[in-house]
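Data availability excerpt. The first of two example chains:
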Amino acid sequence: MKLHFDVAVIGGGIVGLAHAWMAKRRGLRVVVLERSPAAEGASVRNFGMIWPIGQPAGQLYELALKSREFWLQLKTHGVLDVRTCGSIHLAHREDELAVLQEFCNHRSHQTKMLSAEEVLQRTHLANPDGLLGGMLSITELRVDPRTACQRLASWLQSEEGVEFHYGAMVVAVDDKHVHAADQRVWTAERIIVCSGSDLKTLYPEILQSSDLRLCKLQMLKSVAQPQRDSNTPHIASGLTLRHYPSFQKCPSHAGLRRRIAEETPELDRYGIHVMASQLSSGRVILGDSHEYDDQITPFDNMEIDGLIVRELRKVIRLDDWRMAQRWHGVYAKHPRLPVLEVDAADRTTVFTGTGGAGMTLSFALADRAWTRWTGENA
């Protein structure tokens, strides 16, 4: 077992794995230290969506598209089943249709409008009752969130030579040394702390002053549905238009937000917008909600689950609305930045807080950081 490395990555979620891969691509010796037996945080508790459409035009959208290319490389290497499914935003209200049309008119993303009939031709999930149309985006991908990190880690270990240590509870970092609770010590020339929603174990003083917020989301998974199309697009609703900043520039957006706040204030109270993604197993991941900071408790709110299902029934069809699983996840989110990157010490960097966009942005964010650290642009 080697104990000295070029790079030590603390955290085996998608952000940590992205850093491990990008460092290995540059020929560096890498070790990943994960305190759990496997990644079990936000990286496995999501839709499995790689979601460029949620990023605003400009740098973040370009980063999302670059990350998308890295995911497709993993498909080419046979590491993961990556589906080029795209997404459809459904419009069941006139203001939703107006926002989608205005967004398409900007031509900032790879989208086009669909009639109601065209939507129904592309997905069996859309509810035809009151359907006015939709917006197709071709850039979104699907992976299985429960297995993606595990399979990526296995590939990095077996094929790329990255060393992994699970059950390694890191309690301190000093100089070039990483200390685990069981007295093991690793040394590395550069240390990357990808701690996810853990804001207290390492460098609490940095994280306390960082403006990071914790966000809890509740999600569900249906029992298996008939697999009429295993590559059906991700589905987003009109409620989603008020969640992602991409749509805020649309003239009709303010009216849509106002209408939802007046008609269903309970949705704003819990930050609910509804989406659906059908896995190859036939099960459909459904969600979600957003509670922040002091609102977060260990206990799931059944009212929230009920509201999610209530709103989903308006926009999608399932043959069986029984749920196979319910869970919640917690992630860290910065109010202004796509990621919090802070130098904690010489050649030790805290890299966390990608919010709900970790699957979408992590590969490109890590690649950009390593380009800067290795002086490739010099």
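And the second chain:
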Amino acid sequence: MMINELPIVKKHYQGKVRDIYDLGTELLIVTSDRISAFDVVFPNLIPNKGKILNQISVNFFKTTGDIIPNHFITDVIEEYPSELHPFKKELEDRSMLVKKTRVVPFECIVRGYITGSAWSEYKSRGTVNNTIIAEDMQESQRFPKPIFTPSTKAEEGHDINISYAELLDRIDKNLAEQLRDKSIELYKFGADMLKPKGIILADTKFEFGTLNGKLYLIDEMLTPDSSRFWDINEYEVGKTPKSFDKQYIRDYISATGWDKKPPAPELPEDVITKTYEKYYTAYKSIVGVQAKEWDIE
């Protein structure tokens, strides 16, 4: 895609999954089909993954504005600057026009259940994000109430989990409280909305930015890349439930013995297909009858 050659684009930034084009006071975010795990991008693409992630985020940005404002402006190509209209085929369903904010350099993770790195830390030290957990817990058990577990946001390499107390040492107290409270409120919204659809929201990650002194939700929201989605019918305390997210990739690649350092290995076709099926299942469950179908190119 050659959008960065257009005069309207001031700057182009490529993240692990998203390509961000600076339009001045606005940004164009294009979600690719790339997939990453352990902060490393794999050489393979997952068909239509970018469209799935983008459409899920658009769905939630449109329905959570009463909780906190977000950066979403539109995903209708005809409402983009005219210079972008010739790229409708490339942008359709996988892009959005958003407000440009100053990114808060922390990832805001909310955990409703103990799993993943939280479970590993708890088993070894009895803590989650360096905070003591008083309860005697089993793997995949639900916390008495959702917990806020922030991390640093690294440009390169791995993010580092920190406690809320450590977050308070690094940023303004009022901002830290907003990040915590709004993240938990958004998690509860997502968990309550997904449960009747047969999905448990085990944990999820939010990102925020500021604009004119106001906090905005940015990036993506409640996607299979930023969340753990469990099949409610497979859930059992003490075990890792069937998921609809990239945990499948993490589990597969961990079993290969890869050292989790670049370059990432090639993914077999069956793993690519299975990953796509999991992502599409999550998308269809979330969006319902409005879910789109795309050809696999």
